[in-house]
């Protein structure tokens, strides 16, 4: 066995040297498969996906099933079968099916015929337009994606890029060739110490276009032939063929994925991250130290004032002077700062969901750091996200009900019901709508009905009851009492100065957390839209930490300024101001759209905007909640450290 067990020190190492080491961890459950000489090695086909075209732009986001009738790809004699896949892998777009390719371990075979088909003009038109935009076939051999060997010119290293083109332009012409021959190159090695056992450690497919004129023999593939161009005016006959070459390789089984995990320009990646980390940490420390010093002075002054006025009831000029000073500052609003905010129900529900998201994200990244979400374990990321979100419904319910109770809310039934339904309902609703669009396009991206049903069942049978249980516990727990009493009559709020007005202050506050995650966001987006493998969880972990720090500290600063300006309506501001990070994330998605994608067609645009909105919405709740909870702790802390008579 060459599996490496994840260890705490390993996780730490992975964190420090993420791009190199994170790839070396594998889920203990993924065991290597050994094959005997000539034993059949299955080749599975996955969805046909859009890729960047010749102009390096992505032109579509709609993927198709490999066996969509219009492509007429060769089917196995007894029909293609679904290969069992996890929920996460299906949600993330995998549609893995069996194929009619015959690969025999360590046996070279050339020019085998798969099947023959005829493409009518309508199909030719459709396929040509797809190939024009850029579209790739995705196969799996022994769990490894069939890739293409690519040289990264910047670092001059070789790596395997999953997927290969269905067809491409012939030279610089407008004509598109249709690839009907595949050279499948499988790298393998004999298992050391075992007799007649071999393992697959790398798969490359070099597609070719060959217009066969006569019968296909084993050596036909050495002849030079013209490429096949699908005729849009008449039927085109196409023969599909393939050759299999088994090339011995020294790659160890445990590191076979390393070739697929390539970091483009790692120096820039590191540089920008370290750069933003420095700026963020510096900023946060500066802000915090100023704030702490100001607060210490405030608290000392307030408490000295109390002392003086008690000691000397006759009143001296010193007290008068300080008394004048006391007319400003955050102490003045002590009778209002814990007043119930408007719409406490909505705020509690959002915050409950925010707490749930917060813990889920943290745990997911922790699992990823421990190596459980390696790309070799397909779909594990999606599965773990769903699993964690479901189980953490408990935390959501508990948090929202506890907060709602402390805000003197009385519609507690509504609070219990809305917590597990409102936010997930919005996300699911958008997801379902987008799915309808995909379904209308006959895309394989549309989640199958059974998966949809499974999600709804998990939601209502596990997540909702858990949330109810959490809410029940939350309402039974003692009320969180504010450290100071709230007055009967609300104070008047003086008019606000420019930078404290809601919109400018929110935009300022949201900008900083966005700055912390901006670089990583770019890589996540390119992994989502260009279907690149994302595995830089070390970076992600650092970014998440930076985002939490900035969110918390800038919001606390804003709340401090608000209270100093005697504006005690801080609760919603503390939620909405950091939540504007989501606005920047959405704007960033739009800029990404303009610079990297050129989505032709209505459906592509709707899908892109829809998914971007969904992700932004989740960030809205997450960052808002981080800001709120940080401010909440801050406000409780400062008001419990002053004496009020
Ligand atoms: C198969 O062909 C490749 C390329 O020609 C060669 O390197 C390899 O040794 C061959 N493998 C076997 C098992 O004959």
From TrEMBL:
Coarse class of the protein's main subcellular location: membrane
Regions crossing the membrane: 270-295, 345-373, 379-400, 412-440, 452-475, 506-530, 536-563, 575-594, 606-635
Species: Remersonia thermophila
Cellular localization per UniProt: Membrane
Residues spanning the signal sequence: 1-24
Protein family (similarity comment): Belongs to the nonaspanin (TM9SF) (TC 9.A.2) family.
Membrane topology, as annotated: Multi-pass membrane protein
InterPro entries, sorted: EMP70 (IPR004240)
Keywords carried by this UniProt record: Membrane, Signal, Transmembrane, Transmembrane helix
Protein name stated in the entry: Transmembrane 9 superfamily member
